[in-house]
Amino acid sequence: MTEHPGFGAMLESLLDHRELSAQELANRAGLTADEVRVVLAGEAPGEGLLRRIAPAMGFHTVDLFILAGLVVPDDLAPLDAEAEQWAPHIVMDAVHLSSADRRELLQLIRSLPQEERPSVFGAKRLASHAGPGGWVIRMLQYRNLTWMSMARILAVVTPTYLSATTYGVIGDGRKELTPRLVVDFAALLGFDARELAALTGIHLSEVPPPPAPEAVDAAVLLWEARRLSADQAKRVSELAHSMRGDPANVYFINLPGT
After folding, report:
1. How far apart are CA 43 and CA 30, in angstroms?
2. What CATH number should be reported for the domain whose range is 7-73?
């Protein structure tokens, strides 16, 4: 059983990496230094504190809830679980486009009207002892990805090529994370790979190169697509595919840098 190191220890590792003090974080987050220090000392963070720390640290708030082992509030979940059948295809087609076309798609996603939430989002439950692998897989689930779509997107955007069931095994803590997995997961999540390695306890023997532009754009598109309804995601997906000008459903593997 993998024991959770505690959110305070994880936050401390982030502050050390960024050479930030508790006071500096408090100033950025609109908190007192004591409020930060008690969390660093081991006190469980509350929802309000996480919502303030996340933007101050440049994180998506949902990711900090997952790292802290807390239940994710409904307002931090993707809008429509049914959009999961379209969101991956938006990204996989988009990374085959030029950077200008990817920007156009991103602007379109951001410009679409915000629709009402149709239902409560329910990410697939993972084992309570899942540990670092579970945290990472859950973050991807909260980006509207199933195990199958994780397998497809990561194969297209990174060198990682695994079966869908393997992502379930990682999520349940039955397969350990590797440096390669951490670097590739970080790219799709929009994390600094060194920070994700520190959070998950994985040693990187060397500083990884920055992710390719396609991978950076994939992370942003995947995140922004969370706000779409299933119908909106379907329309954006169809547009992304038409922009490729390729009638076949063909995707190149490990596309960035090729």
Report:
1. 19
2. 1.10.260.40
Nearest to 9 by CA among 171, 198, 193, 204: 198
pLDDT digits (tens, 9 = 90+) for 196-235: 999 998 999 999 999 999 999 999 999 999 999 999 999 9
The Cα-based distances of 91 to 19, 59, 102, 115, 257 in angstroms read 34, 21, 9, 21, 16
pTM above 0.90, yes or no: yes
Per-residue pLDDT band at 258 (split at 50, 70, 90): very low
For the chain, domain boundaries: 7-73, 81-244
- HSE at residue 87, side-chain half, CA atoms within 13 A, is 30
Read off the pLDDT of each residue in 172-191 and give the average, rounded to a whole number. 95
Which tokens go with 24?
């500096």
Cα→Cα distances 237→107, 132, 230, Å: 14, 31, 10
Check residue 82 and give left, alpha or beta (phi > 0: left; psi -120 to 50: alpha): alpha
